[in-house]
From TrEMBL:
Organism encoding this protein: Rotaria magnacalcarata
GO molecular function, one term: catalytic activity
Cited Pfam families: Exo_endo_phos_2
Protein name: Endonuclease/exonuclease/phosphatase domain-containing protein
Keywords: Coiled coil
Coiled coil: 111-138
Length: 329
């Protein structure tokens, strides 16, 4: 246990201090005069080490008495600066360890997250590929099924490459059956050339009408766009022919152009007559309705099995009389 005495004259040796403390009954272990930091020069401060705390506490209360000179004693205080520096050093060490662990954990976590994201992306790509494959299979199956039952009255609906197609087959007397199809091609899409061949394979007596968003300079447009070139290529192949009518079918903000077309296979195409373009319906769409006539000899509607009765022609007096007779039996 340590205590300090300040301003002790340098002329007083350490052994005199030890003798003075021992004389009053204090158990002293060591008496040392502190030196300056630079030059190893003794100072007036003396460090006294006691055997136990009781001796140290008694000394602090009584002080040091050497001959006729009295000196006050002080308990050894904790070196706060050293403690603080040690604490800061510990914090810095812990911080470095934590940073290293955080860096390692962060790096490991980043690698694991990247791996999980990559695996998830691969799974999603695989699902998309499977979905596309399934859709293509359904489309092919639908076309094959429709082709194998050319006399079916069921609707055919196909969407491929932003080409939306709806087709229906109708039983007729003149052509047995014909296929009428409506097609829409988005302004940002290309015409799916294969779909025309597929519709023709389902039924070679076909009429295809719709908004192809195709412009042909040969049909009155100022220029031929990309879909117009595709349409021209289709007409050159000879499977499908176009109704020779250059009337504009789209009108908006003083801009008019032919975007809607009536196509058909021969000889059905030659049966189309009285093609008319009508005013637009509303102001949003801009497309003009098209109408035409075609002689196909549709099957006559079967006679209804229900009886046709004219209640106003009934002789109700005679009916009631006969009914009364029946009720009397």
């Amino acid at each position: 246990m340590v205590a300090f005495v300040k301003r002790v004259d340098l002329e007083i040796p350490d052994n005199r201090i030890t003798e003075a403390l021992t004389k009053v009954g204090l158990d002293v272990i060591n008496v040392t005069r502190l030196n300056r930091k630079h030059g190893n020069i003794p100072t007036s401060t003396t460090k006294i080490t006691f055997k136990n705390a009781n001796n140290r506490n008694t000394f602090i209360h009584t002080g040091l008495q050497v001959d006729s000179v009295h000196f006050n004693a002080e308990a050894a205080s904790q070196n706060k600066n050293a403690s603080t520096m040690l604490h800061l050093s510990s914090i810095q060490s812990c911080s470095k360890v934590l940073q290293n662990k955080t860096h390692q954990n962060g790096k490991k976590s980043l690698e694991e997250t990247t791996k999980r994201l990559f695996e998830s992306l691969q799974q999603k790509i695989k699902k998309i590929e499977q979905t596309i494959s399934s859709v293509e299979t359904l489309i092919n199956d639908d076309i094959i099924s429709s082709s194998s039952s050319s006399h079916s009255d069921e609707d055919i609906q196909i969407t491929t490459h932003k080409n939306e197609i709806i087709a229906v087959q109708i039983e007729t007397l003149l052509y047995k059956s014909i296929l009428i199809s409506s097609i829409y091609v988005a302004p940002t899409a290309k015409i799916d050339m294969n779909i025309f061949q597929e519709l023709y394979n389902i039924n070679n007596n076909c009429i295809i009408v719709g908004d192809l968003n195709a412009t042909l300079s040969e049909m009155g447009s100022t220029k031929t766009n990309a879909r117009g070139k595709q349409l021209q290529q289709l007409l050159n192949e000879g499977i499908i022919d176009c109704v020779d009518d250059d009337s504009t079918t789209f009108e908006k903000n003083e801009y008019e152009v032919k975007l809607d077309w009536i196509l058909g296979s021969q000889p059905l195409r030659s049966s189309i007559t009285n093609v008319e373009t009508h005013p637009t319906i509303g102001t949003i769409n801009g497309h003009k309705p098209l109408t035409f006539d075609i002689q196909i000899g549709a099957e006559p509607k079967p006679t209804s099995p229900r009886l046709s009765l004219h209640f106003k022609e009934v002789k109700w007096t005679k009916f009631r009389s006969k009914l009364d007779q029946q009720l009397m039996l």
